[in-house]
Specification:
The chain has 4 domains: 133 residues, Roll (Ubiquitin-like (UB roll)); 183 residues, FAD/NAD(P)-binding domain, CATH 3.50.50; 129 residues, no CATH class; 56 residues. 20% of the residues lie in helices and 25% in strands. It contains 15 helices and 35 strands. Helix 2 runs parallel beside helix 4, helix 5 packs parallel to helix 6 and helix 6 packs parallel to helix 7. The two termini are 16 Å apart.
């Protein structure tokens, strides 16, 4: 297999898979049976999947979630979405050039009767919120169907290799997201009243309160008494020059390739956005052996948890706050990125431009709820609730807890004899959804001739695993608030290292001042591959902010079972530095290399609608002419008329109105149509959408939900 496959990972293990041969542009390549076509192409080094028919612009992967059409290729002569189509042996793939003529399905196409079902509760989304709700519904005997368009349950949890925050009791804090997904799915399976429909795409909610679904390539209709929308969120896009080049994509697409499909999509990555999503994705990149060139954030401070930021700083990743991206540079794909410092007016400062070599730009500038079904249900008076990001953007820990609450509320609504969620549950939910508090400077105090934990987490966030896991109960949070900072009681530590291993923020070290002499022993967590650290080597250590403290010797590297794939590294550190050591630098020095090239941003040619290649200038002209209706903009420019149906460009259009001083109350949003994703019209007539080689009946569709896989 190619160098683009991830062979060594500190957390993940590559599953056993069946190699198959396929062709790309006539060239024979090797992939794995059932993996997405896009991942097989990436693993073969292919980044450009075709060219847009409008202007010939190169196209590549963007969302990796079936929501757009950027990754469309020809498979056996017909267009498919590469990210949602499983690879089969002998598959013949070609780039999409222009608009292919689709052959008509033969009259003998097999038709099936439309399946109809009635159920008490239909849950859209098998992620943390949907699964948590389904568990409560099942516990109360509510007949429930959970639908998800992927081949396994868990939603974005299956992409999360880091340990979760919150509390162990309420939301599995200290457990990795991939394991939480597995545990929730297993719990759902215990309830016979709960059905799980995988590889099922929710298409539309109609005025008769029925929901149309594409299940395993067949159209089915479900009439629920109540609907729970737990469909998550989609990532926001950004306007900048080159924003549609292959190599520019969101954190979800990146984590899908790396953590689900174990493909290394990049060698040099630059991250835009300092929220939790961007910070975590950068850390995942380091774990996968990808060089993180840098991260830029428009605000003076990163908006994500300080412990996530500090993890990167401690590993030597440059973080550029008060900076923005000006352009992605390259001809066929990303070759470099240009950023600039923002002034007090939040405009780029002339002369501050810097260009860094990078082959991938990861955009992580926020999320918007996937709430189309929520609004349609309200319009048609179907009893509906939302949970997770579909209701409010927050951490997955909050999504799980709100899912539990919504599950109980729906059970009560459907007549089950169950009490309301306890009042303290709502308070816990608000705490889990709360923004991080202000950063507090470290106050380090040594306890002579003793062993004790040092907490490098100087920000109030909802998190308490260290207090729960301590066998001697010598770590406490004053006041009992989940958001308080942990403290050592001053005595009782036995040096078990469990708090060091379990901390979701990788922010606890164990300092041992008992040895005599000039050096102390410091134990810290390490979540990169074992090959990156060796006993006896000399490593560079850093403080919480990433400042270099010096070079020290590695005494021991161990991987106890309770550390859950993390390594515990013991260092010999000068006593005067022991309390300040917070991390080991492993980022490559060349990550800070700067090119001389600088580019001026060009505003009006920035692409607003990537599906139809509509530039910002065309929309600005209409706004200047007095247009205030999204529908008119759509009719004139085709913005919002593409495969993603405005999911990507709508926030960018709103931004253009704001930038031009138009009050949002003057703007008319696009009319919401019943269908929220493309589907072959034949599906509504009971025609199954085919999957295998289709030389005889070459009709394959871009909207087939992903199945098979890893």
């Amino acid at each position: 297999m190619s160098d683009w496959r991830i062979a060594e990972h500190p957390i993940l293990t590559a599953p056993e898979r069946t190699p198959v041969r396929f062709t790309w542009c006539g060239r024979e390549l090797e992939g794995y049976l059932g993996e997405p076509v896009s991942s097989a192409l990436f693993a073969a080094g292919v980044r450009v999947f075709g060219n847009h028919p409008h202007d010939g612009a190169p196209q590549g992967i963007f969302c990796a979630n079936g929501q757009c059409s950027q990754c469309t290729v020809l498979a056996f002569g017909a267009p498919v979405k590469a990210c949602m189509t499983p690879l089969v042996a002998g598959m013949e793939l070609l780039p999409l050039e222009g608009k292919p003529a689709l052959p008509l399905r033969p009259p003998s196409a097999e038709r099936h009767p439309i399946e109809t079902s009635e159920v008490e509760c239909l849950v859209l989304g098998g992620g943390p919120a949907g699964l948590s709700a389904a568990i409560e519904l099942g516990r109360n005997g509510v007949r429930t169907i959970v639908v998800d368009d992927k081949h396994r349950l868990g939603g974005k949890l299956v992409l999360q290799t880091h340990k979760f925050f919150g509390s162990i009791e309420d939301c599995h804090a200290g457990t990795r997201g991939i394991d939480i997904a597995r545990n929730l799915a297993a719990e759902v399976e215990q309830f016979e009243v709960v059905q799980v429909w995988l590889n099922t795409t929710a298409l539309a909610l109609f005025a008769d309160r029925k929901v149309g679904l594409l299940r395993e390539n067949h159209y089915v209709v479900v009439r629920p008494e109540a609907l729970l929308v737990a469909t998550g969120a989609r990532e926001r896009a950004l306007l900048f020059r080159g924003n549609t080049l292959p190599g520019v994509y969101g954190a979800g697409a990146f984590q899908t390739l790396v953590n689900r499909d174990m493909v290394r999509p990049s060698k040099r990555l630059f991250v835009i956005g300092g929220g939790n999503v961007g910070l975590i994705a950068a850390y995942h990149a380091l774990q996968a052996g990808i060089q993180v060139v840098g991260l830029c954030e428009a605000e003076p401070e990163c908006g994500g948890y300080q412990v996530h930021r500090d993890k990167l700083a401690r590993m030597g990743v440059p973080i550029h706050t008060s900076h923005t991206i000006l352009s992605a540079n390259g001809s066929e794909s990303v070759e470099s990125v240009t950023i600039a410092r923002l002034g007090p007016d939040r405009l780029p400062v002339a002369g501050s431009e810097r260009t860094f070599p990078a082959d991938t730009i990861l955009i992580a500038v926020g999320l918007t709820p996937v709430d189309e079904f929520l609004w349609k249900a309200r319009e048609f008076n179907l009893p509906v609730a939302a949970a997770g990001d579909a209701e409010e953007i927050a951490e997955a820990s909050a999504a799980m807890f709100m899912g539990r609450i919504r599950g109980i509320e729906i059970a009560r609504q459907l007549g089950r004899e169950v009490g309301p969620p306890p009042p303290e549950w709502h308070r816990t939910a608000e705490i889990l959804k709360s923004r991080p508090g202000a950063a507090i400077g470290e106050e380090l105090e040594a306890i002579e001739r003793s062993i004790f934990p040092v907490f490098h987490c100087g920000q109030e966030i909802p998190c308490n695993p260290c207090t729960t896991i301590c066998p001697e109960q010598c770590i406490v949070i004053e006041g009992g608030d989940l958001r308080g900072l942990p403290e050592y009681t001053g005595e009782g530590c036995i040096g078990c290292e469990r708090c060091v291993a379990l901390c979701p923020g990788v922010a606890i070290t164990l300092v041992d001042l008992r040895p005599s002499g000039t050096h102390a022993v410091v134990t810290l967590p390490f979540e990169l591959p074992r090959e990156k650290i060796r006993e006896g080597e000399v490593v560079t250590v850093l403080d919480i902010g990433g400042a270099i403290l010096g070079n020290v010797e590695v005494l021991r590297v161990r991987a106890p079972k309770f550390a859950d794939h993390a390594l515990l590294v013991r260092l010999s550190v000068p006593r005067e530095l022991a309390l300040s050591v917070a991390g080991i630098r492993k980022a490559e020095e060349t990550a800070m290399e700067k090119l001389d090239q600088c580019l001026e941003p060009v505003a009006d040619d920035e692409i607003v609608c990537r599906c139809e290649r509509v530039p910002a200038g065309a929309v600005r002209d209409l706004i200047r002419d007095g247009v205030r209706d999204f529908n008119e903009i759509k009719a004139v420019t085709r913005a919002g008329m593409g495969a993603c149906q405005g999911k990507t460009c709508a926030p960018l259009l709103r931004r253009l109105f704001r930038e031009m001083g138009v009050d949002e109350r003057e703007v008319t949003e696009s009319t919401r149509r019943p269908l929220v994703i493309e589907v072959p019209l034949g599906a509504f007539a009971g025609i199954a959408t085919g999957r295998g080689p289709v030389r005889d009946t070459p009709v394959r569709h871009a909207t087939d939900p992903h199945e098979g896989g890893l």
